[in-house]
Write a sequence for this structure.
RNA sequence: GCCAGGAUGGCCGAAUCUGGUAAGGCGCACGCCUGGAAAGCGUGUUCCCGUUCGGGAUUCUGGGUUCAAAUCCCAGUCCUGGCGCCA
């Protein structure tokens, strides 16, 4: 969250940031008024308390000296003050709570590099890789059809046990998923990342620390009867793992990677564009989380993008990097780059001239001190006596299902098989081609092909 | 789940029984001292308000008793140990 002091001293910067985001839910003037009123009441309450503290000290002295009558007078005065303090502070506390709640709903102020714009089409392309002589099949089958043809994907069975938006990976499909996870973890370990495996349920405090709560409650799965939510992204447990701690200057930068399943309700997000495994309720992801000194965070953001794209580079999948415009920027982020992989099968609106479409597989964001302030993440800078907020960043490295989509569509062969990208083969006992599996059960027998 | 013990500053730790200035140590920063350093001495090292200076809050959290709570009472959270259950 933004600090009270920052909002008080830079209201115009906050207003401009909101305008760039096309956010008109936040009323800065109202917040400033609340703040001014709260400060006035706090000063009043502090003065009253000061007076009462002095009287209280005197009572002790008078009692010691045996001057009961004087002491009794002071006790009466103290009781009067107590009532007055209760009145003033009750009002102050109400304003304080209100102010806190309002501030939790103020998004981060975008960095000056963030381009104007309302939505996806306004994002600015930074670079594009592997397009010059790409090797996509002429007429690729969409992953959802191919996956069921090969019996490596089953949506019906997923829906049977958990409902729509869940799916089974089967046989080589599941193997490819495992291979990708291990491959990504190995790539990032080479880049200096330390592995962590976090708890999957997270509490409300953690969700508030990274900014998912209070605004985005509807996107999360809640666990009934507990103050717990299913992890929507490893960003939540990993960023909060050092909450309310003070790290040493020597500890920084910290680079953690975490593989976790992620759960999102995605209410109202179903349609042709999300068919298959492009937008599902549960997906695996390797997440990169950085804790850095404030002065290093923008250099780190650039490096983070390279660390995430290294996976696509090694897989030789066509992709591009875009800078998100103000309107597309997420709540807690000051600047974000999206990594979009090319899925050639479905020619949809959001895609390159070659056809197909862009699929976001990672968002690399600098949150500056926004999350650190909410989560209580601090460090002690060298040659400073007191602790201050550090900066946090994260990027997916990468979200699995969409990478799987890209592989299935980009590396599919004319005979309906899929070539396993070279770097993944060591993780699949050297297997080079996914040929699919025979269907299981009576449905297979009655499938019609035989005379 | 049951029983017992515990939670004090960046860290360690005293004060809790017996309510009245949160001791001391370590680390770190600044200053003094020094040719320079070490040692030593002093100041500082959480949050909030206010211009220096000051004031307020803060002993896990929330209530209560009291003129006054780290201290007494109630509830909760977490940690440790023991028992139980369990992949």
């Amino acid at each position: 969250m933004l600090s009270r002091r920052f909002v008080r001293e830079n209201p115009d910067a906050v207003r401009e940031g909101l305008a760039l985001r096309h956010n008109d839910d936040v009323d800065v003037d109202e917040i400033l008024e609340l703040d001014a009123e709260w400060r006035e009441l706090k000063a009043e309450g502090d003065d009253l308390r000061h007076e009462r503290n002095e009287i209280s000290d005197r009572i002790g002295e008078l009692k010691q000296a045996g001057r009961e009558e004087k002491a009794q007078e002071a006790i009466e005065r103290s009781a009067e003050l107590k009532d007055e303090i209760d009145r003033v502070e009750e009002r102050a506390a109400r304003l304080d709570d209100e102010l806190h709640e309002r501030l939790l709903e103020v998004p981060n102020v975008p960095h000056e590099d963030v381009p104007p714009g309302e939505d996806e089409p306004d994002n600015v392309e930074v670079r594009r890789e592997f397009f010059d002589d790409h090797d996509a099949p002429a007429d690729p089958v969409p992953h959802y059809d191919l996956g069921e043809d090969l019996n490596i994907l089953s949506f019906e069975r997923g829906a049977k046990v958990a409902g729509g938006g869940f799916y089974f990976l089967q046989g080589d499909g599941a193997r490819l998923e495992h291979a990708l996870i291990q491959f990504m973890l190995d790539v990032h370990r080479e880049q200096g990342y330390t592995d962590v495996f976090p708890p999957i349920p997270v509490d409300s405090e953690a969700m508030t620390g990274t900014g998912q709560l209070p605004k985005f409650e509807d996107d999360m799965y809640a666990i009934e009867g507990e103050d717990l939510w299913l992890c929507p992204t490893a960003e939540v447990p990993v960023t909060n793992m050092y909450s309310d701690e003070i790290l040493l200057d020597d500890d920084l930068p910290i680079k953690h990677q975490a593989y976790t399943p992620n759960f999102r309700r995605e209410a109202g997000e179903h349609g042709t564009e999300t068919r298959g495994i492009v937008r599902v309720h549960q997906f695996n992801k390797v997440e990169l989380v950085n804790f850095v000194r404030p002065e290093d965070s923008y250099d780190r953001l650039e490096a983070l993008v390279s660390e995430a794209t290294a996976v696509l580079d090694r897989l030789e999948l066509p992709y591009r990097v875009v800078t998100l415009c103000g309107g597309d920027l997420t709540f807690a982020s000051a600047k974000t780059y999206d990594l979009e992989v090319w899925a050639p099968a479905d020619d949809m609106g959001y895609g390159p001239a070659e056809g197909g479409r862009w699929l976001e597989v990672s968002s690399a964001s600098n949150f500056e001190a926004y999350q650190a302030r909410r989560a209580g993440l601090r460090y002690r800078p060298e040659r400073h006596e007191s602790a201050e907020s550090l900066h946090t960043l994260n990027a997916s490295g990468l979200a699995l299902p969409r990478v799987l989509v890209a592989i299935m569509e980009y590396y599919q062969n004319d005979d309906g098989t899929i070539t396993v990208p070279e770097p993944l083969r060591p993780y699949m006992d050297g297997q080079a081609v996914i040929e699919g599996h025979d269907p299981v059960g009576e449905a297979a027998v009655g499938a019609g092909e035989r005379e």
Notes: Residues 4-104 of chain A form a domain with the Helix Hairpins fold (CATH 1.10.287.40). The first strand of chain A starts at residue 124 and ends at 129. Chain A has two domains: 4-104, 120-434. Residues 122 and 325 of chain A are 6 Å apart (CA to CA).
